[in-house]
Amino acid sequence: MAENVTEVIAGAGVLAAAIGFLVYASDGAGLGRATDSYELTASFRSVEGVTVGTDVRLAGVKVGTVTSLALNPQTFYADATFTVSNGVEIPDDSTAIIASEGLLGGAFLELQPGGSPLNLDPGAEVENTQGAVSVIALMMKFAGGGDEAETSAP
């Protein structure tokens, strides 16, 4: 009988730990309770490296997350929906950029505020965007440009 009680207590402890990890993970992924935020949208030529859950940053500080990505069949651009924390007002002439944390770092959505006195309303679209820059394409241009400069010299 004592063995059964010990096993039940140990099982309950394992189950409680598993539930605790699930709650912690869902809060970190934004799946838990609703946060105080509003949604904005933007269309990009390329969202390479960005996925649902990617950080949205303003001046290097996380202010939201990307909540959905979809291909627009009319424009062939990627439509991104993302959240921004309440209290963070984004001017309506701001720019949304897919930026990289470094040469080999991950991508994030960076908001660069404009100077307009008017702010974007919840659900509005950020009109000014700059898509992801392919590091491989840049290296190919650099390598190709170096060869041309050497061959065109007298």
List its salient traits.
single chain, 154 residues, alpha/beta, 2 domains, 8-stranded mixed sheet
Q: What does this protein structure show overall?
A:
The protein has 2 helices and 8 strands; from the N terminus they run H-E-E-E-E-E-E-E-E-H. By secondary structure, the protein is an alpha/beta fold. The chain has 2 domains: 1-33; 37-141, no CATH class. The radius of gyration is 23 Å and the shape is elongated.
- In whole angstroms, the N-to-C terminal distance is 95 Å
Oligomer: single chain
Strand content: 25-35%
What is the radius of gyration computed over CA atoms, rounded to a whole number of angstroms?
A: 23 Å
Write the layout of secondary structure elements.
Elements lengths: L1 H27 L8 E8 L10 E4 L2 E11 L6 E8 L9 E6 L6 E6 L12 E2 L1 E3 L4 H18 L2
Parallel strand pairs: 1-7, 2-6, 5-8
Antiparallel strand pairs: 1-4, 2-3, 3-4, 5-6
Gist?
This protein has helices at residues 2-28, 135-152; strands spanning 37-44, 55-58, 61-71, 78-85, 95-100, 107-112, 125-126, 128-130. It is an alpha/beta fold and 154 residues long.
